[in-house]
Structure formats: C-alpha cells, structure tokens
Amino acid sequence: MRKASIIINTLSNSKTLTRCLRFLHQQDYPRYEVIVGCGDRKTEARVYLEALKIVSGDVVMFINDDCYAINRSWISEHMSFYPEWDVVLGYPATTIKRAAFRNFSSKREVFDIVPLRNMDTNHDTDFAMRLERTRLKVKLAPEIRIYHDDWESPSRYISSGFNSGILLRVNRGAVRLADVKYLVRNPVILVSALLGFLTPINHTRRLRVKK
C-alpha cells in the first residue's frame, strides 16, 4: 500500500488547524503522515520546500489549515488514482491553470520534474503554468471535496455544480459513483451540473482535460 504525505501550512491559527487535524485523524486510509509548517502567504513556498525535503510518502498531498476533509475517504479518493496518474486536482480546481496547493496531490517525483520555486507570491500559479506544459498525466477530480467556510454559499454551489457538469461531459464514460454522490447531495449543485453538462461542446474545449 502506498504511503501518503500530507503537508499543511498554517498561519498559527490553533482553532482551524485543530479542526483540520481532527478530520484527518478520522480518515479511513491507514498509511499516511502529516507534516505541519508555519508561514504566511509570502513564506508559504518556503514552508512547502522544507516539507518536501522530509516527506517519506510515495504521494504528496496538500491541504490548507482552514480547510477540512469532512469525507472520511478523502485520502483514499486521491490515492485511488495512483499509480496511473501523476497529479490529481480536487475541488475547487476546474482546470490545470487553476491548480493550487489545497486538495492537490502528486507523485513525489513530480517535484523533480516541475520544481517548486521559492517565490513570495503566486508560487502556485507559477507551478500550475509550468505543470501544464509538461507531459505529466493530470487528473481533474472535482468530486474529491474539501470544505472551507467561505465556500459553502449558494454562489459557490452553482459554480461548483456547473463546472462539475462540464467536466463530466468531457470525461464521459469515466463517471464514478463518487461523482454521482457529490452531484445529488444538493439540489442547487444537481441543477447547475445539468446545465453544465448540456453546455455546447465548443464551450468546453478550453478545459484541456488530459486523459
């Protein structure tokens, strides 16, 4: 069984970090480690670089301290795509360019191919743009959810559902039970996903989904 290394950057907010760790402790995947670093937006990249030096897992995962994996299978869902895929992007990423170091996972060796740069700002955008130019296999998996208090709003549900519908259309034939469970959890998400699924195909080409 592959080992997962989960990296968390925290702003020293003990309340949100404790909640994040509590939900990780309840995960059903048995083989993982958690590495916590402390830094603000300007030092976040440096925190990740130091953490990457000591990870021991085959797959590296990232989550913010103010996010929480309420689904007990969050780690398992990411790990289910390996070794076939090199990178897995969960919600809220809908394109490779929108990849960020939250609900993100990759094989450890990906950072040898696309090194993370020590930048004060926009390190995740820089990494995503360089990732897109590689031949690595990137899986867009919006059904893999983490939660953030600011995300749980009607407008977010509409946006999330619509984007999920588009991705299901592009990935037709590769729908999993987890996709269906996510879409039916909320009527707003379901209706928005239906509208996204019915969007004319020429409007979905910009997603550049890699299969």
The assigned CATH architecture of the largest domain is: Alpha-Beta Complex
Number of helices: 8
By DSSP, the count of extended strands is 6
Termini Cα gap: 24 Å
Secondary structural class: alpha/beta
The largest pleated sheet is described as: 6 strands, mixed
Poorly predicted regions:
201-211
Shape: globular
CATH class of the largest domain: Alpha Beta
Mean pLDDT: 81
Q: Strands of the largest sheet, in order across it?
A: 2-1-3-5-4-6
Query: Approximately how much helix is present in the residues?
Result: 25-40%
Q: Mind telling me the CATH superfamily name of the largest domain?
A: Spore Coat Polysaccharide Biosynthesis Protein SpsA, Chain A
What is the CATH topology assignment of the largest domain? Spore Coat Polysaccharide Biosynthesis Protein SpsA, Chain A
CA radius of gyration is: 17 Å
| Percent of residues in β-strands | 15-25%
Helix-strand pattern, N to C?
EHEHEHEEHHEHHH
Q: What's the number of structural domains? A: 2
